[in-house]
Each structure stands twice: as C-alpha cells, then as structure tokens.
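For the sake of transparency, this paper describes our internal protein records without simplification. The tokens are whole numbers drawn from a learned vocabulary of local backbone shapes. One such record is reproduced below, unchanged from the form in which we store it.

. . .
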Amino acid sequence: MLSTSTDTVSDRLSRVAYLLHEFESVAIGSHLLYLSTCNSSLAVIHEFDPWFNFRAAQYLHDNGWKAFVNWFDHKVWYPLGRPVGTTIYPGMQVIAVWLTKSWLPVWFGVKKYLGMSIPKNVLVKGAKRVSKSLSSPFMSMVASSMSKVGMKWVEMSLNDVCCLIPAWFGALTTVTTGLIALECSARFHCGVGSQFGTILDEFPLLGHYLRKVGDPIRYILKKYSGLDAGGVRVSSSSALQPASLLSMTATMFFMSTIPAHIMRSVGGGYDNESVAVFAMTLVFYLWTRSLRGDGKGADVDINPSEDNVGYRIRQKEDVGFSLSTRTITAAFWGALTGVAYFNMAAAWGGYTFVINLVGVHAAALVILGRHSSKLHAAYSAFYIVGTTLATRVPVVGLTPIKSLEQMGPMLVFFVLQLLEYCERVRTRDNLTRAQTLLLRIRLAALFGVVGTATVMSLYPSGHFGPISARVRGLFVPHTKTGNPLVDSVAEHQAAKEGTYEQYLGVVAKFAHIGLGMIALAFTNDASSFLVVYGLAAYYFSHKMVRLILLTAPIGSILVGMVIGRVLGFCVEGVCGFHLDIWEIFGTAIVDVHNEPKDEPPAEVKSKRAKSNGAKKTKEKSSEKEKGKPKNEQPKSSIVDNIAVNVLLRCAWAYLAYYLYTEAQPEMKGFGEFSDRMAVAMSHPTILFKGNTRSGGEVLVDDYREAYWWLRDNTPEDARIMAWWDYGYQITGIANRTTIADGNTWNHEHIALLGRALTSPLKEGHRIARHLADYVLLWTGGGGDDLAKSPHLARIANSVYRDMCPNDPTCSRFSMPGGRPSQMMRNSLLYRLHSHQLVEGVEADKNRFKEVYRTKYGKVRIYKILSVSKESKEWVKKNKMQNCDAGGWFCPGNYPPGLQKVLKEKKDFAQLEDFNRGASDEEYQKQYFENLNDPAKARRRAKKDTAKEVEPDRPDEREVKIEAKPGRPTKEEIRDINRKWVDNEITNALFDVVRSNDLNRLALIAEAQELLLHSRSKDGRGPMWWAHEFGRKDIIEALKDLGVSDKLMDGDGILPADLADDHDEF
C-alpha cells in the first residue's frame, strides 16, 4: 500500500474533481428527467398549492422581506383574511427570489461572457444600467463590476425560476443522497465508532460475545475470499474503497429515477417538498458526517480495551473535561447540521420529522452502548444551533420549546448532557462502577424533579402546544383522525397495497435486504442512522401515503449499498486484495503510523505506556520461542496454491458477470417504468391533453380559461365562492378574492362554506349572498365537486350539527345506487352542478345566473343575484386583523347578516385541543362508529330517507363510437391503460356506470370493447366508478370482459378500496 506523510492541495483537488464528475453525470440526467413537464407544457405552475407559493414569491419579489413578513392578505379567507407572513414557511420563496435577483443574473452573465450557452427565455440587460436600479448595495456593486469587464446582466422571469426550482433541487437531492451512501459505506478512519459490525456489537454484555463470534468470521472471509467483511481492521485512516464508490453511484442512479422522488421534483411542481427533501437529505448527510469525527484514528485503539470499571473505552483522548480534536470536529459538523436544519425548518412543516429522527438516532446510539463525547458534541451543537435558528422563522417561533411534537429531541439533549457530565467526572476521578451508578442516579433524580416541577407549572397555562390532527393520525390504530376535514384529503390516507411498488418500483423489493445487511454486518455510528431512518420512513409512509416521498432517499440508499457492496466484493475478489480508489488515481494515502498524533492526557498516556510495555515483553518472549519475526503471517496452503487462487478469482469474475446479466432486464424495466411515471406525473392537472370523438388530440385548458374569464370579466373586488381546493388557483391566476383555500387553518370557516354549498338552494343562497358575488364549480365528472360533495357535507355537519342530526358522517347526503339522495338533490351544489344537464334539474333564475361555461364543460360559473351590498360594505369598513398573539389563528369578523346562521354553529373540538378544555366525545364516538360500521350508518340513513322521492335518472350523453369488433390484444389494453385523459368517452362511461345502465355498457362493448379500459385524468376508469357507486352487476360484467381490478389510480388506490367509501355513504 502506498503511504506518504503529506497530502498536497493538488491531491485533494483531484479527489474532489473525481467525485464531482460522478455527481455531475447523474445529476444532469436526473435534471433532464425532472424537466419533462417544462418540455411538454412550457413553464406552467402545477396543481393547487404551487400557485399560492408562486403568488407569495411574487409578493416577496415585488415588496421585499419586511413587507412580506407583515403581509396580511385580505384577498383570501374572506371576510377573515390571512396573516401570510406568520403562517407560511418562507424558505422556498426566499430561494426563488434570491436566485431571480442575485445568483442567476450573475451566473448567466458569466456564461454569456465566456461564450457558453444560456437559456433562451431570458432578458439581457446592460449591467451598468441595472446597477443603478438595484436596492441591494452589494448586488449594485457586483453589477457595476460586471459592466466594467463587459459582462451583461441576464435575468430569468420569476415564473420560470419557480417552475425550474423543483428540477434543480431534485438534482441536488440526488447528490446529497449519494453522499449519505458514501459516508455510511466508507471507512474513513479506524476509530471505534467507524468500525463496521452488527448493530448490537457495542450493546452491554451481548456485544462482547457478538464481537468474539463475528470478528473471526470476518477475518476468515477477508483472508480466503477477498471480501471486505465489515469489521475487519485496516491500517489506513483514509481510504475510499470500490464498495463505497459503487454504493454512492448506485444510490444516485436510483434516487434520480425513483417515482417517489420524481413526483415532487418535476418542473412546475413548485411545492414545499421540492426544496425540503433536499434540505432534509443535507441534514442527514451532515449528521452522519459529524459522527465520523476528524478523520484521524491515531488516538483511538483499533482494539479498544475496557477501563477500570469494565466500560469499553471508545475515546481515550477525552478524559476529565478536556476536549480532543475529534470532539471539536464533531461539534463543528454538528453546528453545520444545525444550519442545514434551519433551512429545513424554513422550507416545510416536516422539519419536526427531521429533528425527531436525529433525536431518536442519538438516543438509539446511547441505548446500543455507542455513547461517546463525539456523539454528545455533535448532537449538542446541532440542537443548540438548529433550534436557535429555527425560532427565527416566523411561522416556527417558539414552537421547538412549546410543542409536544418536539419535546422528545429536547429530552434527548438534556439526557446527553447528564450522561456526558457523569462520564467526564468518572474519567477525571477514576470512579468505580458503583460510584458511577450512584452519580447517575443522583443526577437523574435531580433532573426528574426539576423537569416535573417545570412541566407542572407550565402545563395549566397552556404553554405546551397540542399535537396536530395529522401527526396524531400517524399513531392511532385506525386510518382516520376524527377530523372530517383532514380525513377528506386523499394524501392523508393510509398507503394501500401496491403503493410502494407503484412509487418505488424495484427498490421496494430489495430495500429490506439492504436494511438487514447494514444491521447484521455494516453498522457503525453513522450507518446505524440508516436503520432508524428506514424503519421510521416505512412506518410513517404506511400510515399516510403522502409521506411516501420520505422513502425515496432511504430506499435508494439501502438498495444502492446492496449493489455497491456486492459489486465491491466481486471487484476485490477478482483482484485478490483491498483496493483504494485514491491509490488507483495516484493520490496520497496517509498511513496511520506516519500521522501526527494528538498528545493524550497524562493519565491515559501513563496507563497506555504500562500496557504497551507489558504487551511488548510478551511479544518478544513469544518471538524467541517461535524463532520468527512478529509481523510474519502464518502461511496458508490455500492462499499460496496458484491453481486455487486463479480458480477463486475466476469464480468472482463469473459471479460478477452472472449478476450483471441477471440484473440487466430488471434495471431496464425499472428505467422504462420510471420514464413512464415521470411522463404521467409531469402532466399538470390544470392543463392536459384529451381526445375528440374523431380521434384527434386537443389541449384541454378549461380551468385556466375559467380563471382568466374571472380576471377579465369581473370587478377587481369580486368575491368567488368555490370549494377550498381551488382557492389558491383563483387568487394566483384570476387575482380575485376567495372564501377559503388549501391552507385549511380555520375549520369553522370551511364548515360555513360547506354548509352554503350543501344546504338546500334557498338556504345556501341566504349564506352565499353575504359572502360572495360568484360561485365557481368543477363539473367535468370524475373527481369534480359532485364527487367531493359528501365530504363537504361531513365537514359542514361537524360544526352545524342540525344538518345531519346524530349522523357525524352525514350518510343522508350521498349517492346510493349511483343516484343522488334527496338531501343531495336539493343542495345548492347539485342544482348548480347539474343545471340543464340532468332532466328536471334547474337553478333558481331569481337567485343564480350562469355567466360562463368552459369549452369542454369542466367549469361552470354563476353570478349570485341579490347580493347583500350592506354586508359587502360592512366588511370593507371593518377590515381588522383579529388574530391571536402568535398571529396564526384569526377568527375575524363576520357581517351582521350572517349572525343568525353563526349562532347555530358548535366550534369543532378536535381530539388534540386539550388546552381549550373543550370536549366532544359523543360526536367522536359516533363518527368512528359510523366509519367502522358503515352498513349500520347506511341503514340508519335509509330509515331517515325512506319517504324521499326517487330522483330522476341523469340524461344519457350520446357519444358516437367507431365500431371495432373483436377482442382487444394485451398490447392495446396496456397502451390505453397508460393514457390517462378526460374526454367524451370517459365522460360517457362515467354516466353509464353512475346510472347503472347495463344496456349501454353492452352496446359500447359490442362496438369497441377496448374503450372499457379507458382511464380518466386521475387514473380511474369504469372499474373504479363501479366500485364507488356499488354497481355489482357492472363490476361482474367488466371482469367478464377482461377489465382489470388490480390497477391503481394516481393516488395509489385500487378499485376495491372505493367500495368502503361507498359503504360509508
């Protein structure tokens, strides 16, 4: 092995350059994959939440940080308003504005000056002219300097930057995930905390026997097969082995293509997670890096002994209250982890997952016997720096020291202080085991008394914040939270069977193998984090499908490390010895014996000298007896046999070839699968392609057209009533006032909106005329407002209990047999939704006037007649910011005209509202009873509606279908299943299923059976709808015709999963 005592700057640069080359090749590929949407749909913001994020970024861009923090938006949550500055995680907006105003103009200007290509959709300006208009003195100086050397100032629009941020940060996440794999698979030095072994190697008592069994096995594997078997000791303090580099590369490949990551990284998906996942993986990388220490193993024995009371010594240089280089270095990296955590806290509410995961890992290391000064320094620096910075984020504030969700990490922090103090005193005073135990008990008792007294004094005052309904839902046995508003969101539901295969692909099949491999053979202080992360990510993603994105990094790492280890074994098996990548590329490797060593404390030095003296005496006597040098290894006939050696290398080469050929089809299939998923996820729901009756392709832009119509044809102060899903798009595109949006912070206000929409038309109008000027409805079938309306009724009933007395799930408001119940049929929403589309359904012309219907009927807009001018003027005169002290909850003020209906409400007491003293046990009991026994709730609803008039059947839409007799082929079925579009065919099929018309279904099958496999934009088709409406005859008919019931829609939901939802109604 090449060893030198110096490590030049050029050597270090060559290392960095090599790694950057690896990162670049994967990052560029992933960046192009994430840009599929921008290539096909131009720079269009997707979905709902991204429109609010873009609008907030625009406000910050135009008005600056001070105005942004104090921004109270009166165009949303009418008439309450929303304090945006104190309720938003602003990290993503700050990044977008910084890129637009500072980084990109300079970066593109430099590239243009050097003759490199720059994007076409940019604006080139003179740097000198720009320097005079910039508000920042620093950027003005930069622009002025650019003008002096002839550079241009090249600007990209904020819209384009926001569209591209998910792709850019998706590529960066790929790199940081690869770095985690590298850190957890490489052995950068030979300290105790860096040696590989089983996860229980350091566990008291048990670990001692596991090491005795495991070390010889690993030694034999290393000696006779060339395997790098985890815990084998090496002399190099800085080595990059093939297994580590291959693990990093494989991890980056999977992370760049895995659908669970793509879904939050496609261009246009300007959502918090697109930035937060990068921040999260950066925190995890820096945390694992902090557990490495300073990279020097000289002061840590590679075969650690036990001290005077039987404790295994992990860091001999930290004795008493002295600080070693390793501990200081761990604190430095821990502080950097805290800074990265600040970025996470500013970007996404999921920061609580990050700090809790790091806290759990630190606690696990203590329990497993891996506590050290390095761990204490790293976690303490991380917690202090991270928590201090996080409190500077307005929306976070003092939550880290008040919320029950973050009490765990704080407890770990204090426990580590207690343990470290005891260890320092023990090593300083040379305490016995009994004395050490007594010291720990005394300090723990004192800590317990002080902590209990503090909690008891603060609890009655409401100091501790509650656990949110979403978090609570992760720890209850059922899949519902007790809050119908939260339960109405599809992504808050539990993961279904097949979800992991859909979003993880081949990674789901092999991730558990990587987890077991690390736990049984490749665990050290850093890699043990992967075990904790893997278990936590699986649990939480199983409870809430939205959190499937958390599994993308850990799944990629686990599978990447399996592939890296196996290929590394093969490479070293073929070579017959351990490889060091630095050596191969001619860089210097610093031998442990040539490194300058930190001088240990006197006590350790004297003890070590005595111990070494005894060892040397014993070694000399042994050498004299054996008559050979002490370093000469016993010869092995197996190793020295050339024929056996050659056969062994050939066997490794054949194994590598066999694994490669066997993996090729699987990897190719995964790549094609990821490409298809990327294309499907890249299509914005606000803009999509559909097929006409003649087979032509059209661009369906109904939603934006409706918002543009509002922008161009309504007064600027017009108020739009729509379900909260669309609020962000209405304010972001139409720039009009909305009643509610996706923030969903005020349950009672959303319930009022739900009551207006689901009440009888006249009663709904009495509410709407005081709140809005127009009503906007989605009416295109599939997941339109009619399909969502049962959830609206539930939410309304949770506050206005007289809507569905003694029925928390509001089973009377449903579509039994595919036909609307009388309560639904009388509702404002149904009357406007089906106005002149269903026979006998008409909107009251004295109360509502249809003013716009989009080209393909996806959106309908009605003008509210007899609007209360008094209420509108009252709100204008009383625009007061009525919010709590934290600026989060703003009950606001309603006009006098709504006071009558508001007196009927009962504030919804959620299960987590223990600080309010409110209780609604009976409601919660009935709510869960109905969910657990939907048949009983349905029977009760039937009794209540027994005298209702049977509603008319919806009209049948005539769709001309080209006759193509014969059974479709498997290839044709596969192709049509991949095309998710809303068109006349899917609308007609929806009507057929909803009206339970077997005759029309038979006619369609006879004309062109392939059409029965059609799927709408949300991934659902006739089989889903048949289960949703309880059409057993149609289900059987579709099965007989070969329509699969094993496919999943866009949310990972199987057709059979919808049967339960139907039973609830």
In short: The mean pLDDT is 78. The CA atoms of residues 207 and 213 lie 10 Å apart. Residues 642-682 form the longest helix (41 residues).
